[in-house]
Structure formats: structure tokens, C-alpha cells
Specification:
This protein is α+β, with helices and mostly antiparallel strands. It contains 23 helices and twelve strands. A hairpin with a 2-residue loop joins β6 and β7. The relative contact order is 0.12. It binds protoporphyrin IX containing FE. Belongs to the cytochrome P450 family.
Length: 601
């Protein structure tokens, strides 16, 4: 322990400082953990203004250190130094050309309940698993999965339509909505006909994540996971049920495939087929394919890796399109041009240029995974510095994506136009610096899956609704593994009639008059529609929501509510002075005084 917590950190610190790398001083025994936890807690208590300059809130400690020490610096992850690498060329070296010289960080024993499989393996095992899983994510397989994506999105929109009265609006928190959608998508695409069991696994995995978050709020004591505490028992029970469900599905599927019967195009069947093929090719080799237990781990990983990340992408897309209504309109226009009112088809999704630019810009400003970490497995030379074995290299996607030297002074602005000529030309510096899905051989295997899902879902939403942020929305991005909205994402959803009104009115008018007149008239019509919603439907909806819960009050009077009556009463009471008494409320606030008297009787 003395070596691990005292001598080793000292030796590594002097090796780094000796090469001119600045950083925080090692504090025995937990490094920068205490300070970074305090800063994170403080920043979580304060929401942000509606701005994309989110780093000081999301990653306050690293933000402070980079400001003090510069972009190349080191901090302490417990007794291990973590060097921040912000140079995109060096990041590419780490993730691509020299990727074999780095290891993934070991997951804590508790984390293994959730994060296992491909994402954690190294060396030969990783190569074998990646080879088996890859075919399941090929473009033609994704095309076959599109109906499953569509079914899930249609169910979501069907539910939303029930909330919104025709031509009206409703307030809705899209965060849990997208959480269910992306869970459903994985359940359907991964397990096809066994979708219901898939759904159950999704629920259990969510429960497992909650239990792990609960456990992580206490200091982890090695071996404590074996103690028979209620939390440990619950965690093991959930894990047993997940494994049981997966094992029985896998065994049934293997039997069907071996008997030559046709199985669906879901991820599980594709994975088992690919696995059995490899087993046949390497019959004599012991480690030809994956064992049932390994297939179980990969299925669990699909939920973890594929659900929360895509949920986050959809969530911030809705936030940014609400903050930038002109881009929302441009995207809707494009979707209508490509698909009209029809259900989006796979080939059409590839024609969506504006939507693609928007999703890239969302992934740049709000990358679901904000940072990648690697560990040096030996001494490695990078950019003129030799990093000793056992150092963490932190590749902060969020910081690189917001770097003004790379993206220009408008780095924090939402400007999808920067991606108009592709990812390579998006930066001011001409450097390739966009890597929300990582780079190199270990790039996200589900990248196209996620982008297809996001494009399809966004297209279907735009076809049916328009949206804006609710007044109750609080801008508070924070990380719980992924970059999430701390207080959810309530939006005001407007039904399709109004969503379509703008473009239909514009189309009709521009055929009748000049574009300028059409634009002005469209704006006026839209303004009238908006005013109608704001002054008529919204007050009615809110009034019935309050009365429905037994709250008494005055009736809404169009358009100014109680303003007229309260002004008259105020004027009348001001005309009359009071006797020398402290009973001043009837004079100071005559309207509220009257209403409180009426409604409490
Ligand atoms: C917007 C959505 C997504 C984002 C931003 C994302 C991001 C990433 C990133 C950054 C990595 C690299 C992690 C590392 O090397 O430390 C990764 C790996 C991975 N992702 Fe995704 N991901 C997304 C969606 C998905 C989906 C939908 C799936 C599967 C259904 C998936 C499955 C995986 C797997 C299996 C790996 C490990 C690959 C390997 O190590 O070979 N991801 N993802």
C-alpha cells in the first residue's frame, strides 16, 4: 500500500514534471478526488443560462486546471496521474496508429454488472468478439431493422398525439420518453420476436443501474460486494433474472438455427449465426467462437452502450432545435421534401443532409460520452514526451469539441452549417477533431445504428410536431456516465396542424404572390397561430389542470386574465386613504384580498 499510495505517485509525478508537463500536486491518498467532488457538487447546484458553453458546469475541475496549467497537463485520479491530451493528432495516434500500446481502464467489480463484453476486452479476445459482432451492424442488416425502429417511433408518437388536443399544445418531458423509446428499439432490434422478454431485460438493467448508482454513493470497500446486505442481494437477484432470460432466449435461438429453421434479422440471431459460423470454421480450435456466457455479456452491453447514448443524442437534439427554431424549420422542410407524409425509408434517410449536419453539431456540442480514457501498458512516446507505464491518458471529447482554436470563435454556438461540407472541413484549423464515437479500430460498433435511429426518430417527430422549450425547462447538463439533463427536458409540443401550418401557408402564398410578401404574410399567420395557442389553448389547459386537482380560482378571461379587474380595484382603493390602522391589505392588494376571501369561503 505504501508503494502504491506514496512512492509510485511521487515517482510518476517527477517523471512527468521532469519533461516539463504541468499539473496538480499529488495529495495523499486520494489525489484530486476530494476537490473535484466538491466542485462538481457546487456546480450541480447552479443551473446554466440557455447557452452551450457547458464545460464549466459539466467538468468544473478539469476546466479550472486547464485554465491554470494549459491544455497539456495532469491531474490525479486517486494515486494515478491522468494526463489530459487535447491535441487531435495525438488523440488519433492513441486511438488509431498506436492503439495496441494502450489498455482500457479496469471496471470496478460493481461496474461489471453493467459494463462488460466487447467494450472492455483487450487483445485476442477483443479481436475475436469484434469479428463475430461486426456483421450484425452492417448497412444491409440495419436496413432490415428499420421496420423495428419505425414501429417503436410510431408507438411513441401515437402516445404523444393522445396528449396533444387537435391543434393544441401539451407540456411533456422528453427525457423519460426517449429513454423508453431507445430501450424499446434495442429490445426489438436485439431480440425480434422475443421482444417482451427483451423489454423485461431493459427494465431489469435500468433497475441494476439505479442500484449501482446507490452503491457508488458510498465508498467502495474491496470485498464488500460479497457481504449479504439487502443492496447486494437485490443486485444479484436482478443479475440472475437477466442472465436467466438471456440464457433461455439464446438456447432457443441456437436450437432453431441449428435445425435450419428461418430466424429473424435481429441482433441476437445475427450474432449467434456469426458465432456458429466461426465455431465451424475453427472446429478444432478451443477458442473459435463465443460461449453462451459471453453472448449474454454482449447482449447486456447492447443495452448499456446503445440505449443511454442514443437517448442523450435525441434529448439534446430536441433542446437545440427548440433553442434554434429556424434550424427546426429547415430540418422539417427537408424531411417533408424527402418523405412527404410517408413513413421514412432507409435510402431516404441517407439523403437528409440538413438533419445529418444538425445531428453532427449536437454530437459536437453535447457528446453523450464526454471523455475517453486509456492506460499506458508500457513506456510510450507521444508528441515528444515519454509516458511511463501505468499512466491514465484522458481524451476529453467535450473539451476538444468546444476548443475555439480548433473550431473558431463561435465554438460554443449551434451552427450546423460548419458541417455543410463534411466532417473534415468542419474545423477552422483543418484538423480532424470530431470524435463522438471515438476513432480507430475500437470506434463505436453501433455508430450507424445510432445515427439511423436518431434520423428516423427525428424525421417522424418533425413530420408530426413542432416544439419549444417549456418555461419550466432548466438548462443543467451533467454527467451520470453519459451527458444527461439533470432536471429532465420539459417541452411544449404542438400538434401537426400547426407544425405544418408554416410550410403549407408559405407554399400556398408563394404560389399567389412574391416571396417577400409571402414571407411577411406567413410570419403574420404564424404569429396569429402562436398567439392563439398562447392566449387561448394554453390558459384553458393550465386552468383545467389546476381545477382538476381541486384548486379554486378565477375563470380565465381572454385575453388579459384578471388584469382589468385588478387595475380598477387598485385605482379605486388608491383614491381612498386608510384610517390610522395596520390592517392595510385591503388597500395595498385589494384584488388578491377579495379573491382569497371568495375562494376560501
Ligand atoms: C449516439 C450514440 C452513441 C455514442 C455517442 C457512442 C459512443 C461510443 C464511444 C465513444 C465508444 C468508444 C468507447 C471507448 O473506446 O472507450 C463506443 C464503443 C462502443 N459502442 Fe457506442 N455509442 C453510441 C451508440 C451505440 C449503439 C447504438 C451501440 C449498440 C447497439 C453501441 C455499442 C458500442 C460497443 C459494443 C462499443 C465497444 C466497441 C469496441 O470496443 O470494439 N454504441 N461507443
Amino acid at each position: 500500500m505504501g508503494t502504491w499510495l506514496w512512492w509510485r505517485p511521487r515517482r510518476l509525478e517527477s517523471a512527468l514534471r521532469g519533461q516539463g508537463l504541468p499539473g496538480t500536486r499529488y495529495r495523499f491518498p486520494s489525489g484530486d478526488l476530494k476537490e473535484s467532488t466538491i466542485l462538481a457538487r457546487e456546480s450541480r447546484a447552479k443551473p446554466l443560462p440557455l447557452s452551450n458553453d457547458i464545460i464549466p458546469r459539466v467538468s468544473p475541475f478539469l476546466h479550472r486546471i486547464i485554465n491554470q496549467c494549459g491544455k497539456s497537463c495532469f491531474t490525479w485520479f486517486g494515486p494515478i496521474p491522468a494526463v489530459t491530451i487535447m491535441n487531435p493528432d495525438l488523440i488519433r495516434e492513441i486511438l488509431s496508429t498506436k492503439f495496441e500500446q494502450f489498455e482500457k481502464l479496469k471496471t470496478s467489480p460493481l461496474g461489471k454488472f453493467l459494463i462488460t463484453g466487447l467494450v472492455k476486452y483487450e487483445g485476442e479476445k477483443w479481436v475475436r468478439h469484434r469479428r463475430i459482432i461486426n456483421p450484425a451492424f452492417h448497412a444491409e442488416k440495419l436496413k432490415q431493422m428499420l421496420p423495428a425502429f419505425s414501429t417503436c417511433c410510431s408507438e411513441l408518437l401515437g402516445r404523444w398525439e393522445k396528449f396533444v388536443h387537435p391543434g393544441g399544445t401539451t407540456e411533456l418531458d422528453v427525457w423519460p420518453e426517449f429513454q423508453n423509446l431507445t430501450g424499446d428499439v434495442i429490445s426489438r432490434t436485439a431480440f425480434g420476436r422475443s421482444y417482451e422478454e427483451g423489454r423485461r431485460i431493459f427494465q431489469l438493467q435500468m433497475e441494476q443501474a439505479k442500484l449501482l448508482i446507490l452503491a457508488s454513493q458510498n465508498v467502495y470497500i474491496p470485498g464488500s460486494r460479497f457481504l449479504p446486505t439487502p443492496l447486494n442481494r437485490q443486485r444479484k437477484q436482478v443479475d440472475r433474472e437477466v442472465r436467466f432470460l438471456l440464457r433461455s432466449m439464446i438456447e432457443k435461438r441456437e436450437t432453431t438455427i441449428k435445425s435450419g429453421e428461418k430466424v429473424g434479422d435481429d441482433l441476437l440471431s445475427l450474432l449467434i449465426e456469426s458465432n456458429l459460423k466461426l465455431f465451424k470454421e475453427h472446429e478444432k480450435l478451443k477458442n473459435g467462437g463465443m460461449t453462451t456466457e459471453e453472448v449474454i455479456e454482449e447482449c447486456k452491453l447492447f443495452y448499456f452502450a446503445g440505449q443511454e447514448t442514443t437517448n442523450v443524442l435525441l434529448n439534446w437534439t430536441i433542446v437545440l432545435l427548440s433553442m434554434n427554431p429556424s434550424w427546426q424549420e429547415r430540418a422539417r422542410e427537408e424531411v417533408r421534401q424527402v418523405f412527404g407524409e410517408n413513413s421514412p425509408a432507409f435510402d431516404g434517410l441517407n439523403q437528409l443532409k440538413i438533419v445529418n449536419m444538425i445531428l453532427h453539431e449536437v454530437l459536437r456540442l453535447y457528446p453523450p460520452v464526454i471523455s475517453l480514457t486509456r492506460m499506458t501498458s508500457n513506456n510510450v512516446e507521444l508528441g515528444g514526451i515519454t509516458y511511463p507505464k501505468g499512466i491514465i491518458l484522458s481524451l476529453p471529447i467535450l473539451f476538444v469539441h468546444h476548443d475555439t482554436e480548433i473550431w473558431g470563435e463561435d465554438a460554443h454556438e449551434f451552427n450546423p452549417e460548419r458541417f455543410a461540407e463534411g466532417i473534415l472541413k468542419a474545423t477552422k484549423s483543418g484538423q480532424m477533431a470530431f470524435f463522438p464515437f471515438s476513432w480507430g479500430p475500437r470506434i463505436c460498433i453501433g455508430q450507424n445504428f445510432a445515427m439511423t435511429e436518431a434520423k428516423l426518430c427525428l424525421s417522424m417527430i418533425l413530420q408530426s410536431f413542432s416544439f419549444e422549450l417549456s418555461p419550466s425547462y432548466i438548462h443543467a447538463p451533467h454527467t451520470v456516465i453519459t451527458l444527461q439533463p439533470q432536471h429532465g427536458t420539459p417541452i411544449i409540443l404542438q400538434g401537426s396542424e400547426q407544425a405544418m401550418a408554416s410550410s403549407e401557408v408559405f407554399e400556398y402564398l408563394s404560389s399567389e404572390m412574391s416571396v417577400v410578401t409571402a414571407t411577411v404574410t406567413t410570419t403574420l399567420v404564424l404569429w396569429a397561430v402562436w398567439m392563439g395557442t398562447w392566449l387561448w389553448w394554453r390558459p384553458r389547459r393550465l386552468e383545467s389542470a389546476l381545477r382538476g386537482q381541486g384548486l379554486p380560482g378565477t375563470r380565465y378571461r381572454f385575453p388579459s386574465g384578471d388584469l382589468k379587474e385588478s387595475t380598477i380595484l387598485a385605482r379605486e382603493s388608491r383614491a381612498k386613504p386608510l384610517p390610522l390602522s395596520n390592517d392595510i391589505i385591503p388597500r395595498v392588494s385589494p384584488f388578491l384580498h377579495r379573491i382569497i376571501n371568495q375562494c376560501s369561503n
